[in-house]
Amino acid sequence: MSKNDLSVQKHKVTVKSKLKIYELNYNFKKKIKNTIGIKPFLVAVSGGPDSLALTALSKDYEKENNTKIYYVLIDHRLRKNSTSEAILVKKLLKKKKINLTILSNKTKIDKNIQSNARDARYKLLLNYCNRKKIKYILTGHHRDDQIETFLIRLSRGSGIQGLSSMNKLTKLKNNIKLFRPLLNEKKIDLTILAKFFFGKVFKDPSNQNQKYLRTKIRSLLKQFDKSGIEKDKIINSINNLASTRDTLNNYMSRIIKSCIVRKKNKVYIDYEKLFLEPVEIQLKIISGQIKAISYSYYPPRAKKVMNLIKKIKTKNVLKYTLGGCVILKSEKELVVSRETLKKSKKV
Length: 347
Fold this sequence. Notes:
CATH superfamily of the largest domain: HUPs
Oligomer: single chain
CATH architecture of the largest domain: 3-Layer(aba) Sandwich
Number of strands: 11
Radius of gyration: 22 Å
Distance between the termini: 52 Å
Helix content: 40-55%
Low-confidence stretches: 2-10
């Protein structure tokens, strides 16, 4: 933080913590300058320590570089007190002269809550970015989130793409990019920074709900700490898998050029040529094309894509739907397009 910010804080921290805060700020500024520069960007705020740390760092960057930054919180309305909690976050930010915009989700979410809430959140954020002509969305994902995501995907049997976890930069719809500048940072350090800048943070009650897999994984990680399993070693594995993923992606890009043609909002796949490749390549390419055409944040589950591939190879059914797309099979190719309201055979 700047010296002015440091001088007005009442929250006590050690000299070591202050040095860490300066380090976080230095690393953040370097990443933003290298990736975004002085272009406007959006900060996704929740009130938790990670997003508040991101907000504090962004505010300092905004003041120093005269950059236009938008701070946005999504009220999912999944809990009784969510709206009042959002207002509390807005008031907290206002004390630091940060204007928080609250967007309320009006889509009913009653199943697959975390997944559907995430989809609704990014839909609202993307629409807001389109209105304001913003090309970057920043989130407070950090090192602990990386490890949780790795273990969640490991429990689901994910392959290399999934186990390499989150990228620092992800392309979304309409050339808007999702940037995660805090992926290398520890949650405990971000919490210290957030409390130092704002005086307090808010806890999301859903983070304690044991019905969610991510909450169970967090409990498991506490046992890891007690048993001597080092998080740094898990991060090393994630980074190694990411390197393998990048090599695989380079190979897949060559395959895509040889067997896929995209025209407007449709993709044409020469499946006879694609099916000469290993199953993992088939899976990733078809999955990636469905994700791209449907503009989904995540690709469809690997299990469902594998089921689709098996049916394409063994059955004469010519029409399928998966991941918000319709897949038509002809003698020579698959045609992938966005799903309409018309019903077709579900995979």
